[in-house]
Amino acid sequence: MASFFPQVTGSFALDEPPKRFWLSSVAVGVVTGVVVRLYRALTLTVGPNESMLYVGAAFVVGQLIVLGMATLHLGSFTLKRWISRAPLFALTEAATELLVSLGLIGLGVERLGSVRATFGDWPALAVNTLLARVLVVLLYAGVLAGVVQLVRRWMLKREHRDHTLQAVEGRK
Description:
- By secondary structure, the protein is mainly α.
- The chain has one domain (about 25-145).
- It contains 6 helices and 2 strands.
- A hairpin with a 2-residue loop joins strand 1 (about 110) and strand 2 (about 115).
- Helix 2 (about 25-45) crosses helix 4 and helix 3 packs across helix 5 (about 120-160).
- The longest helix is centred in the C-terminal third of the chain and has 37 residues, at about 120-160.
- The radius of gyration is 21 Å and the shape is elongated.
Protein backbone atom coordinates (compact mmCIF):
# COMPACT_ATOMS: atom_id res chain seq x y z
CA MET A 1 0.00 0.00 0.00
CA ALA A 2 1.30 3.48 -0.90
CA SER A 3 2.32 5.83 1.87
CA PHE A 4 0.55 9.18 1.69
CA PHE A 5 2.61 10.79 4.41
CA PRO A 6 6.38 11.29 4.44
CA GLN A 7 8.43 9.53 7.09
CA VAL A 8 10.16 12.80 8.03
CA THR A 9 7.70 15.59 8.82
CA GLY A 10 10.42 18.20 8.51
CA SER A 11 9.97 18.05 4.75
CA PHE A 12 6.74 20.05 5.03
CA ALA A 13 7.35 23.75 4.33
CA LEU A 14 3.81 24.94 5.00
CA ASP A 15 4.64 27.18 7.95
CA GLU A 16 7.53 29.09 6.37
CA PRO A 17 5.67 32.18 5.07
CA PRO A 18 3.81 32.82 8.36
CA LYS A 19 7.01 32.25 10.31
CA ARG A 20 8.85 34.83 8.21
CA PHE A 21 6.00 37.28 8.73
CA TRP A 22 6.16 37.03 12.54
CA LEU A 23 9.93 37.63 12.46
CA SER A 24 9.57 41.09 10.89
CA SER A 25 8.89 43.92 13.35
CA VAL A 26 7.95 46.21 10.49
CA ALA A 27 5.52 43.79 8.82
CA VAL A 28 3.75 42.91 12.06
CA GLY A 29 3.66 46.60 13.06
CA VAL A 30 2.16 47.66 9.73
CA VAL A 31 -0.55 45.00 9.79
CA THR A 32 -1.36 45.79 13.42
CA GLY A 33 -1.53 49.53 12.75
CA VAL A 34 -3.92 49.10 9.84
CA VAL A 35 -6.17 46.66 11.71
CA VAL A 36 -6.31 48.72 14.91
CA ARG A 37 -7.05 52.04 13.20
CA LEU A 38 -9.73 50.54 10.96
CA TYR A 39 -11.22 48.77 13.99
CA ARG A 40 -11.25 52.08 15.88
CA ALA A 41 -12.91 53.89 12.98
CA LEU A 42 -15.52 51.16 12.66
CA THR A 43 -16.38 51.03 16.35
CA LEU A 44 -16.61 54.81 16.73
CA THR A 45 -18.65 55.21 13.54
CA VAL A 46 -21.12 52.34 13.89
CA GLY A 47 -21.48 51.80 17.62
CA PRO A 48 -23.38 53.70 20.31
CA ASN A 49 -20.79 56.32 21.34
CA GLU A 50 -22.96 57.56 24.22
CA SER A 51 -22.49 54.23 26.01
CA MET A 52 -19.36 54.37 28.14
CA LEU A 53 -19.47 50.58 28.46
CA TYR A 54 -19.32 50.21 24.67
CA VAL A 55 -16.51 52.74 24.27
CA GLY A 56 -14.55 51.15 27.13
CA ALA A 57 -14.98 47.66 25.72
CA ALA A 58 -13.93 48.86 22.26
CA PHE A 59 -10.82 50.47 23.77
CA VAL A 60 -9.92 47.28 25.65
CA VAL A 61 -10.34 45.13 22.53
CA GLY A 62 -8.12 47.55 20.57
CA GLN A 63 -5.41 47.30 23.23
CA LEU A 64 -5.70 43.52 23.26
CA ILE A 65 -5.14 43.46 19.50
CA VAL A 66 -1.97 45.55 19.83
CA LEU A 67 -0.60 43.62 22.80
CA GLY A 68 -1.55 40.26 21.31
CA MET A 69 0.30 41.05 18.10
CA ALA A 70 3.28 42.29 20.11
CA THR A 71 3.27 39.03 22.07
CA LEU A 72 3.10 36.92 18.93
CA HIS A 73 5.98 38.87 17.42
CA LEU A 74 8.24 39.04 20.47
CA GLY A 75 7.63 35.38 21.28
CA SER A 76 9.78 34.44 18.29
CA PHE A 77 12.90 35.99 19.84
CA THR A 78 15.12 35.77 22.89
CA LEU A 79 14.61 38.32 25.64
CA LYS A 80 17.81 40.15 24.70
CA ARG A 81 16.43 40.86 21.24
CA TRP A 82 13.23 42.32 22.67
CA ILE A 83 15.19 45.47 23.55
CA SER A 84 15.35 46.44 19.88
CA ARG A 85 12.25 44.61 18.61
CA ALA A 86 9.64 46.06 20.99
CA PRO A 87 10.38 49.75 20.25
CA LEU A 88 10.60 49.09 16.50
CA PHE A 89 7.25 47.29 16.55
CA ALA A 90 5.65 50.08 18.62
CA LEU A 91 6.96 52.87 16.41
CA THR A 92 5.99 51.08 13.21
CA GLU A 93 2.51 50.31 14.55
CA ALA A 94 1.93 53.91 15.66
CA ALA A 95 3.28 55.39 12.40
CA THR A 96 1.04 53.10 10.37
CA GLU A 97 -1.96 54.05 12.49
CA LEU A 98 -1.20 57.71 11.86
CA LEU A 99 -0.95 57.23 8.10
CA VAL A 100 -4.23 55.31 8.06
CA SER A 101 -5.74 58.06 10.20
CA LEU A 102 -4.73 60.65 7.60
CA GLY A 103 -6.47 58.62 4.92
CA LEU A 104 -9.58 58.23 7.05
CA ILE A 105 -9.65 61.99 7.75
CA GLY A 106 -9.44 62.56 4.00
CA LEU A 107 -12.41 60.22 3.52
CA GLY A 108 -14.30 61.97 6.31
CA VAL A 109 -14.72 58.89 8.50
CA GLU A 110 -12.08 59.40 11.21
CA ARG A 111 -13.70 60.24 14.54
CA LEU A 112 -12.46 62.32 17.41
CA GLY A 113 -14.86 61.30 20.12
CA SER A 114 -18.36 61.85 18.74
CA VAL A 115 -17.38 64.32 15.99
CA ARG A 116 -15.49 63.90 12.74
CA ALA A 117 -11.79 64.62 12.91
CA THR A 118 -10.24 67.20 10.61
CA PHE A 119 -6.70 67.66 9.37
CA GLY A 120 -6.27 70.29 12.10
CA ASP A 121 -6.97 67.61 14.71
CA TRP A 122 -4.36 65.26 13.30
CA PRO A 123 -1.28 66.63 15.15
CA ALA A 124 -2.96 66.08 18.52
CA LEU A 125 -4.11 62.62 17.41
CA ALA A 126 -0.55 61.88 16.28
CA VAL A 127 1.04 62.84 19.60
CA ASN A 128 -1.55 60.94 21.64
CA THR A 129 -1.34 57.82 19.47
CA LEU A 130 2.45 57.81 19.36
CA LEU A 131 2.89 58.28 23.10
CA ALA A 132 0.14 55.86 24.05
CA ARG A 133 1.22 53.04 21.75
CA VAL A 134 4.93 53.28 22.46
CA LEU A 135 4.49 53.54 26.22
CA VAL A 136 1.92 50.74 26.40
CA VAL A 137 3.96 48.35 24.24
CA LEU A 138 7.23 49.08 26.04
CA LEU A 139 5.68 48.69 29.50
CA TYR A 140 3.92 45.51 28.41
CA ALA A 141 7.14 44.10 26.92
CA GLY A 142 8.96 44.84 30.18
CA VAL A 143 6.29 43.13 32.29
CA LEU A 144 6.12 40.20 29.87
CA ALA A 145 9.91 39.81 29.98
CA GLY A 146 9.79 39.71 33.77
CA VAL A 147 7.06 37.07 33.72
CA VAL A 148 8.98 34.99 31.17
CA GLN A 149 12.10 35.11 33.35
CA LEU A 150 10.20 34.16 36.50
CA VAL A 151 8.45 31.25 34.80
CA ARG A 152 11.70 30.09 33.24
CA ARG A 153 13.49 30.12 36.62
CA TRP A 154 10.56 28.36 38.30
CA MET A 155 10.44 25.65 35.63
CA LEU A 156 14.19 25.04 35.75
CA LYS A 157 14.18 24.79 39.55
CA ARG A 158 11.13 22.51 39.48
CA GLU A 159 12.87 20.18 37.02
CA HIS A 160 16.03 20.24 39.19
CA ARG A 161 18.08 21.71 36.35
CA ASP A 162 20.20 23.98 38.51
CA HIS A 163 23.18 23.60 36.14
CA THR A 164 21.06 25.02 33.29
CA LEU A 165 19.81 27.84 35.52
CA GLN A 166 23.38 28.73 36.49
CA ALA A 167 24.44 28.71 32.83
CA VAL A 168 21.54 30.94 31.83
CA GLU A 169 22.24 33.39 34.63
CA GLY A 170 25.96 33.40 33.84
CA ARG A 171 27.04 31.91 37.19
CA LYS A 172 29.63 29.16 37.49
